[in-house]
UniProtKB/TrEMBL annotation:
This is MFS family arabinose efflux permease. It comes from Nonomuraea thailandensis. Its main location: membrane. GO terms for cellular component: plasma membrane. It is found in: Cell membrane. InterPro entries: MFS, MFS_dom, MFS_Efflux_Transporters, MFS_trans_sf.
Length: 398
């Protein structure tokens, strides 16, 4: 699969926008998506203290990851179609505002039902925001800067999942899980202010309709391949990653070192994101295969290896590099697969990504409650191993 310009004639850059203003807008969107994805994944690092405080099992507490994932999977195409005629800046601002309010509600919640309602609202924001932000670089920066700007935007996704989570975990360990949710809520409101100030109006230039979704699947084999690959990689990753804290605890890692290890994972993930950004222009399918193989190797190493801090850190570097490469690589695949229908392809990708988060957390919860934390590593590794196999089959057919 070769790289082509993902911009369609309907997605011309906003007129009169200077490169500096465009890059400031890109940074505002990146901060927003960082706050958004940190909100979705924050319970991963706080699973044990939240469950203890609310008297819930780890499997039940994982619903805090499952619910927004399921809702986001539905919201991605719904929001994209429902807001097709509305200024993209206004939609993004409203969605990030919901994130700020919902996290503050979680911090003040008196019952698990209220927490799940807040997580439901976060799911709506995740699906809609990410679906629209996926191709926003096409509208904000010059054509030659689009690949770099896309990597920066998806650096926000990756930084959230691998840096925002450990930062939230550390905050929760020091000041309580409610404080961690409140901090992310405030971050969401700061993101809202930045987008209001720095983003120009981004008027929709092509109206997406429901028929675009099945059409892009039917007409583009590479889109279908990308959907399946995304499902396997993300479901496999989150089946195991959601329960990384209890896995490390069961392996003997001290509780106060887990946030440090998640931070190591995060730094490696940021490096993986920008490394993939440099590779996908010329080695896209090889990068996808490498992601699947490294994820599988990392999960297997955690399952069979020792769990002292040093060995765990080495394995988490590999895992972080692999997962860090996922967002920009898979988004690039989808944009290249359907260059004339980027919003439809992006909404399907975001929907699949978040559905996979939900299914991974749910399946992992069942496995943990039935067979213990280590079981999820083998399940997750088996799924990610299918990624390079599928790519090889797809290339042979092509």
């Amino acid at each position: 699969m070769t790289t082509i310009d993902a911009r369609s004639p309907d997605e011309a850059r906003s007129p009169g926008l200077s490169p500096v203003r465009g890059w400031l807008a890109i940074l505002a969107v990146t901060l927003g998506i960082f706050a958004l994805m940190t909100s979705e994944l924050l319970p991963v690092g706080l699973l044990t203290p939240i469950g203890t405080a609310l008297d819930l099992s780890e499997g039940t507490t994982a619903l805090m990851v499952t619910v927004p994932g399921l809702v986001a999977a539905v919201a991605a195409p719904l929001v994209t179609v429902a807001t097709a005629r509305i200024d993209r800046r206004l939609v993004l601002v409203l969605l990030i505002g919901i994130v700020g309010a919902a996290n503050l509600a979680s911090a003040l919640a008196t019952s698990f039902a209220i927490v799940l309602l807040a997580r439901f609202l976060i799911g709506i924001s995740v699906g809609g925001f990410w679906s629209l932000a996926g191709g926003i670089a096409l509208r904000l920066v010059p054509e030659r800067h689009v690949p770099r700007a896309t990597a920066v935007v998806f650096g926000g996704v990756e930084t959230a999942s691998v840096l925002g989570v450990p930062a939230g975990t550390l905050t929760g360990d020091l000041a309580g899980w409610r404080t961690a949710f409140a901090a992310v809520g405030v971050l969401g409101l700061i993101s809202l202010a930045c987008m209001v100030i720095l983003m120009p109006k981004v008027a929709p230039q092509r109206t997406m309709v429901w028929a675009d979704l099945p059409r892009v699947l039917r007409d583009h084999r590479a889109v279908r391949t990308g959907i399946v690959v995304t499902f396997l990689a993300i479901t496999g990753h989150f089946t195991a990653y959601t329960f990384l804290r209890p896995i490390l605890q069961d392996g003997g890692v001290a509780d106060n070192m887990i946030s440090v290890l998640l931070l190591v994972f995060g730094v490696a993930g940021i490096c993986g994101n920008f490394l993939a950004g440099a590779l996908v222009a010329t080695r896209l399918w090889q990068t996808v295969c490498g992601i699947g193989l490294l994820l599988t190797a990392a999960m297997a190493a955690v399952a069979i290896g020792s769990h002292d801090v040093r060995s765990a850190a080495v394995v988490l570097v590999v895992w972080g590099l692999a997962y860090g490469a996922v967002p920009v690589t898979f988004q690039t695949w989808m944009l290249n697969a359907a260059p004339a229908a980027t919003e439809a392809a992006s909404s399907l990708y975001v929907s699949t990504f978040n559905l996979s988060i939900a299914l991974g957390a749910f399946a992992g919860g069942l496995a943990v409650d039935a067979a213990g934390p280590m079981s999820v590593l083998w399940i997750g590794g088996a799924l990610t191993l299918l990624v390079p196999l599928l790519i090889m089959v797809a290339r042979r057919r092509t």
